[in-house]
Amino acid sequence: MAGKTVKSEASTSSSSGNSDNNRGETVVSDCGRRKSSCGYCKSTASTSVSHGLWAHSITVDDYQELLDRGWRRSGSFLYKPEMEKTCCPSYTIRLRARDFVPSKEQQRVSKRMQRFVDGTLDVKKSVETRKDPGVSASACGEASSSVTKKSLSNKNKEKTVGDHITYYLSEQVDNMIRTWSESGQFPCSVQLPKASVKKVSQAKRKLLVEGAEDLMYSSNIAFQIAATIRQAQSIAKDASQSAEDNPLSPKIIAEKLAASLDQLANTNGLAIRACNGHINFYTAATQVSSNEDSHIALGAQESATERKDFSLRLSPVPPQGKRRRLEIRLKRSSFDPEEFALYRRYQIKVHNDAPDHVSEISYRRFLVDTPLLPVQPSGDSRVPPCGFGSFHQQYVIDGRLVAVGVIDILPKCLSSKYLFWDPDFAFLSPGKYSALQEIGWVKENEVHCPSLQYYYLGYYIHSCSKMRYKAAYYPSELLCPLRYQWVPFDVAQPLLDRKPYVVLSDFVLLQNGESSQPLVSENVMEVQGDENYDEDSNDVLVDDEDEMTEPESESSDDDSGSDSCGQTSVEIENGNLGDILIGLNGSRLRYKDLRRAFVPEESYLESQLHRYKRVVGEKLSERMVYSLG
């Protein structure tokens, strides 16, 4: 896309030794059954039923397997709907990215963003004509007014060529600094400042001895980096080390950056030199244009495979309006005040949340805190270049943060968790656009990590109208709640039209002429919940906003009979629970080694372990640590 760049701040240098066997340890506490009111059918009674686990830590491999058994996470809380009991059965839905076929509407969303970035989109007309249930008339008016005023302001205060160049050069220095951090030349744990390249005034320019070049731009970023690292690592305590010999001195940092940026200089007719810790940019005086009808077009013509080929060119201003710059930045999950401010505005304006209810604590718990143990790039095909873990994907237009996608990147998939966006940009359908970008990301990164093939869209609730748009990402699949097999949505849809809870794999087996277990009884498949749910105004591809509160555990003593995994209850014999991994007082042991400490009357723990083993599966019960404190 013209004017779009993709950045990653996710990977670091600690990538050595990231084999599947040393990605950490999953430790969970069992919260048992959770009953609550339902945010989908708006039931005020405790009709939403799920099983909950609190994850102290979880490996990406274990979480991937939990997703494939119908689990999701909200912060550090893991939950799995009890499909036969809950009012709104929730089916995990996914899409194989390389098979994705965009609909006409999805293509229109991409083209609309393209025109907006190119400066050819009539913003006012787009806002007025867009029939988006996600934005009220007043919000549309505010969006139109805000964006139109900004567009007029930008036209009245159009930047000069020099301003565009300083913006561009600052970005290139930042890219190089980020590359150094990822390669380990800077400490990866230190948050480095952003570079600022400034134009040198005519009075301060110094001609070189040859007289052939002028000093045009300069940056003191090396001083800022040195000070930041020195403060973080307390290097200043070593008074015996001189500034000249210090490997983190401004002078040495500037020289290394200048050398690394030399290719950039050659490409754009600039000369870059380090001088006493400063990074100076020189150019021939005859190359400096004062033509006000020209501006810098950054990456305007790159194809998808050329996005990293940043070039500096002079081109006419687009006749329809100002070209905009769209950046997509991928960063590890962490608290960012700018993101929180955007989230707060989104929740209040789009979801009509009371300001007092949108707190930093709830935001951190919901969208920042993560139990996922990060996996750094391994340099081979087992891990993508950004690594695995929890990420925030920022969408930035002309330096303004307009949307943030909260995602988990796992061995088999990108799992979309939540999206929040600036209400002024609702006319761009940010929910749909971000989904298309995330699908594209999976397709691109499957080349680096062949196991990473799928895009998980969260839960699909057929009885909830606001969820049905997820099936528009074709061809999608739903997870069978009984046998955990993936069933094409086209097969599942007519079944779900009749019943909210269906054992999808039964019908697939019957279609294939194979024998199967008996279908679930009609009384289990009765309609549960209200299908007259008003369509939400959300344009968001994820559905975890109702999981922000702390889980309320309730007794599961009434959980009897057949389980949700298609296994029948059996007596505790012959080590049936014996291989479950238990965590107790910092030790790890199998339940069979712990069992002798419990008298026969104390069967409550074993009852808990039976339910736990059913909901997570035998393999995970023997691998994850079931914490008893």
From TrEMBL:
<dbReference type="InterPro" id="IPR016181">
    <property type="entry name" value="Acyl_CoA_acyltransferase"/>
</dbReference>
<feature type="compositionally biased region" description="Acidic residues">
    <location>
        <begin position="545"/>
        <end position="561"/>
    </location>
</feature>
<feature type="domain" description="N-end aminoacyl transferase N-terminal">
    <location>
        <begin position="36"/>
        <end position="108"/>
    </location>
</feature>
<comment type="similarity">
    <text>Belongs to the R-transferase family.</text>
</comment>
<dbReference type="Pfam" id="PF04377">
    <property type="entry name" value="ATE_C"/>
</dbReference>
<keyword id="KW-0833">Ubl conjugation pathway</keyword>
<keyword id="KW-0012">Acyltransferase</keyword>
<dbReference type="GO" id="GO:0005737">
    <property type="term" value="C:cytoplasm"/>
</dbReference>
<comment type="function">
    <text>Involved in the post-translational conjugation of arginine to the N-terminal aspartate or glutamate of a protein. This arginylation is required for degradation of the protein via the ubiquitin pathway.</text>
</comment>
<feature type="domain" description="N-end rule aminoacyl transferase C-terminal">
    <location>
        <begin position="338"/>
        <end position="480"/>
    </location>
</feature>
<dbReference type="GO" id="GO:0004057">
    <property type="term" value="F:arginyl-tRNA--protein transferase activity"/>
</dbReference>
<dbReference type="Pfam" id="PF04376">
    <property type="entry name" value="ATE_N"/>
</dbReference>
<keyword id="KW-0808">Transferase</keyword>
<feature type="compositionally biased region" description="Low complexity">
    <location>
        <begin position="8"/>
        <end position="21"/>
    </location>
</feature>
<dbReference type="InterPro" id="IPR007471">
    <property type="entry name" value="N-end_Aminoacyl_Trfase_N"/>
</dbReference>
<feature type="region of interest" description="Disordered">
    <location>
        <begin position="545"/>
        <end position="570"/>
    </location>
</feature>
<feature type="region of interest" description="Disordered">
    <location>
        <begin position="1"/>
        <end position="35"/>
    </location>
</feature>
<dbReference type="InterPro" id="IPR007472">
    <property type="entry name" value="N-end_Aminoacyl_Trfase_C"/>
</dbReference>
<protein>
    <recommendedName>
        <fullName>Arginyl-tRNA--protein transferase</fullName>
        <ecNumber>2.3.2.8</ecNumber>
    </recommendedName>
</protein>
<dbReference type="InterPro" id="IPR030700">
    <property type="entry name" value="N-end_Aminoacyl_Trfase"/>
</dbReference>
<dbReference type="InterPro" id="IPR017137">
    <property type="entry name" value="Arg-tRNA-P_Trfase_1_euk"/>
</dbReference>
